[in-house]
Amino acid sequence: MRDESRRRGLRIEEAEAIGVKALGFIATDPVLLRRFLNLSGISADEIRVAARAPGFLAGVLQFIVNHEPTLVAFAEGTGVPAADVMLALRALPGGGE
After folding, report:
1. Angle at 18 (CA atoms; ends 53, 84), nearest 5 degrees
2. C-alpha dihedral sign at 71, 60, 4, 13
3. What angle do CA 6, 96, 34 make, to 5 degrees?
4. pTM of this prediction?
5. Cα Rg for the chain, rounded, in angstroms?
6. For a 10 Å CB count at each end of the chain, is N or C smaller?
7. Could you give the number of structural domains in the chain?
8. Burial class (CB in 10 A: 0-12, 13-18, 19+), 64
């Protein structure tokens, strides 16, 4: 991403794509998935329905950024810079709160 667009932030579509990547990242790790489900209060069966709710992807990214080792692992595993995760969080509904 160019420095100029980094200063402006991300488009909602870019932010959503990062949120979806983050959800996939969580889903592939049983320990992370269990922690995410416990903290969010949803069950594995409810994820698809919950994912349609405004603010869900922001919650996924909040989960990632609130634990530095998870953020680093996500960035390394997906190639998404940690700074872009923060930009995505701010761009999503419920993420700027």
Report:
1. 125
2. positive
3. 100
4. 0.87
5. 13
6. C
7. 1
8. buried
Quote the CA–CA distance of 12 and 49 in Å, as a whole number: 20
Q: Which amino acid is at 34?
A: R
pLDDT mean across residues, the chain: 90
Name the token pair of 54.
């405004």
3 within domain boundaries: no
Residue 4: inside a domain: no
Domain-embedded: residue 2: no
Q: Quick one: tokens of 39?
A: 């903290």
Q: SS3 for 40?
A: helix
- The size of the chain, in residues, is 97
Sign for the pseudo-dihedral over CA of 39, 40, 41, 46: negative
Q: Is the dihedral of CA 36, 90, 18, 70 positive or negative?
A: negative
